[in-house]
Amino acid sequence: MTALRLAFAFTASVACVTAAAAAPVRDFDLPAGNLGTALTQLGRQAGLSISVADAGLWRRPVPPLKGRMAPREAIARLLRGIDARIVEIDAQTFRIVALARPAPGAAVRPSSPPRTTGSDESPIIVTASKRDIRLRDYPGMASVLDGKDLAFGGERGTESILSRLASVSSTHLGAGRNKLFIRGIADSSFTGPTQATVGQYLGDIRLNYNAPDPDLRLYDVASVEVLEGPQGTLYGAGSLGGIIRIVGNAPRLDTTEASVSAGVSATQHGDPSGDLGGMVNLPLSPHIALRAVGYGITDGGYIDDVLRGKHNINRTDVYGGRVTLRIDPGDGWTIDLGGIAQDTHGDDSQYADRDLPPLSRASRIGQGFGGQYRLGQVVVSKQWDGLRLLSSTGYIHQQLTERYDASLPDGPLRIFRQHNDTRLFTTENRLSRPMQDGFGWVLGFSYIDNRTRLDRSLGAPEEPLPVTGVTNRIREVTGYGEVSKLLFGALTVTVGGRYTHAKLTGSGNDMLPTHALAFAGTTASRTESSFLPSVSISTTPLDKLTFYARFQEGFRPGGLAIDSGYVRRFRNDRVATLETGLRYGTPGRDTVDFSASGSYTRWKNIQADFIDESGLPSTDNIGNGRIWSVSATAGWQPIPGLRADVGFTFNDSRVTEPSPAYYVAIARANQMAHFDFASDGTLRPLSDEAIAAAKMSRIPNVARFAARVGLDYRTRLGDGMDLRVGGYARYIGKSRLGIGPVLGEAQGDYLDTALSMRIGRPQLGFTLTLTNLTDSIGNRFALGTPFNTGRSDQITPLRPRTIRLGVDAAF
Question: Other C-beta atoms within 10 Å of 55: how many?
C-alpha cells in the first residue's frame, strides 16, 4: 500500500504542474514553392521535425514566408488555404494531417516525398502509447514494422511479423488456431478458457480476448507495432507479454487509387499455392471516402498420410476483406465505420510423425479445422490543438471448429470435436495530450463484455457424443490514466495506474446430472477487482541515446475449466516486471542504431494447461514462477540503400513454487507414489521424484534462445526502375510443448530462412521469393493431437522449400 500511496501522490503532484515556456521566435525567409519543400526548409532553420501524414499534400503550392515569428505560427501561415491541421507531438516535432478533400482541380496524384537522412526526416511515432510518443522517447522495448516491408515478397499474415522479430513466438497448429507469445510469457499449447497473454489490436479495437490469433492478412497495412513486456496500465487484462497493434491505411479523401498483388508458388514435396489481394480507395464526396481490401490465399499441402494413402493433405484456404468508410465533418472531427470478415479452412492438420518418412504421418481420421472471424467497429475522434479525444467501439464474433483423431491403439475409430464460439463487445473512450512543453497525459475508460462457449464431443466419427464443455463470461469496467513530466534536464518520469472491476460467470455444458449437482457452486458468479500501477523513467543524456527503467504489471481474470468431465475454477494470475534498457538511433534513419533491455518477471498463480485423466487438455493454476529475459537489436547502414540488422532474445523461465494441483497432475502423469488429500487440505504423501519434476518445469513454448539476422538492399537502376533485395535467417532454440512430463516433448531448434527480390517501378513490379532455402524439416511445434501425446513423437515441420513469383501494381 505504501507504493500505491506514493504512486498516487506523485501522479497528483505532477498533474498539478504546468509548463508555460513560450517557444522561441525565429527569423524565417522561405521562397514560394510547394508545401513539402517549404516545411523541409522551415524544419532545418528551426531545428524541428515536421512530417506530412498525407502524401497528397506534399506538392500543394504555398506563398513565400518572411518574418520573425514562432515556429508554430510559421507552419500555420504555410497552411493557410490548405485543408490541413497541425498535430504537435512535442516542442520539436509536428505532423501535418489533411482535414478534407482539396478543392476540385487542386488534388494531385499521390507521390512519395523525397527520402532524406538524419534529423531532417520525420520521427517514428509509437501510436500504441495512446498519445503518440516518439520511438526514441518511449520507455520500453518497442518495434515499429513498416507495412510495405511486411508485404515484401508475399503477404503471410502473422508469419510476416514472426519472421522479423526474435522476441515474438507462436504455436503452430495452423492458420487461425495459434497462440502468440512475447518474451518468456507463455501459458499453454491449446485454445481453452484462459485469456491470451498477448493483446492484439487493429487500430484501437481489440481483436480477441480468450480466442486464438485470428491471423488476419496484412494487406494494405501502414505498420505493425509490437510493445514488449506487460502493458497493464494502458491495455488491461491479457497483455502479460505485450501487445501487437496493426495500423491499417486510412481512407484518403483527396485521391482515387487502387492496387493489386498476386503470386503463384511451387513447394518442393507439395502442392502449388496462390495468392491474390487488392485495394481500392474512393472519395465519395469532399468529406467522405471509402477504402476496401479483399484477398484470397490457398496454401498447398505437403504432409502425406501413409495410413490412409493420401498425399499433401494439409491444404489451407483463407478468404477475407476489410472495409472502412471515413466521414470528415470538419473542425477536427473524424468518424470511421468499418468491418472485417475472414474465413479459414484447413483440410487437415499440419503435423508429422518423426519415426516415419519425412513429411508423413499415420492417422486414421481426417483432422480438418475451420474458422470464421467477423468484426464491426465505429471510431470517432476529435483533434484540438494539443488535445485528442478518441472513442472506439467494436463487436467481434469469432468461431473455431477443430477435429482430432482420438482413436486408441487397436481400438475403434474415435473423433474428438471442439467448437469455440466467442463474442466480444468492447468500447473505450480516452482523452490525451501528447508531450508538449515537457508534459503529457492520457485518461481513459473502457468496458468489455466477452462470452466464450466451448462445446466438445467424443466418439464415432459419424455421431460423436457430447462431453462436458464450459461457458465463460466476463464483464470488465476499467478506468486508467498515465502522466509524463520532464522534471529537469533530459529526465522524464511517467506514472500510471489502472483499476478494473470484473464480474465473472460460467457454467458447464452437457454435464452429467451427478457432475452438475456436485459442482453447482463452482458455476456461481463472482467479482474480481485489480489495480495495476506503473512507473518509468527515461533520460536522453546524449543526442539519439536514451536510457530507461520501468515497472509494469499485468493480469488475467480467472474462469472455469474442464477436468475429467467436471467443471472447476481457476484463479486469476498476475505478473510484475522490472525492466531497464537503452536505445540509440532510429532504425532505418541513422547509420547505426541499437536497443537492448533486461527484465525480471514474477508470475503468480500461473494459468496453464495439462492433460487430465481422460487424455483431454485442462487448465489450472500451477503455482508461481519467475522469468529472466534479455533482448537486443542492432542495425547498420554502411552505404545509402544497404541495411543489415541483427537481434536476439534469451529467456530463462521456471516454475519456482508449484501448487498442490500441479503436484497431483505430475504424479498422475508419471504414476508415481500414492497420494491423497488430508482433512486439512494438505497433500500426502508425494515422492521426491514428483516434487523434483514439478519444480524443474520450464514455462512452455518460448525458446530459451532465439536470434535473427537480416539484410536489405535498395538501389535505383535508372529510367525509374528500382531493385530491392532482402533476406533473413532466424534461429529458434529449444523449448517444451507444455507444463509437466507428459507435455514435455522437445520442440524448436531449427533455422528459418528466406530471400526476396523485387524489380520494377512504384506502379508496377515483379518479385521472386524463396523460403526455407535449406529445405530443412525442423520442428516448429510438437503437437498434432493431444490424444497421442506421450505415445508418439509428433512434430510440425517447416513448409518445404518454396519459390514464389509475384506481381504488384498501383493505379
Answer: 18
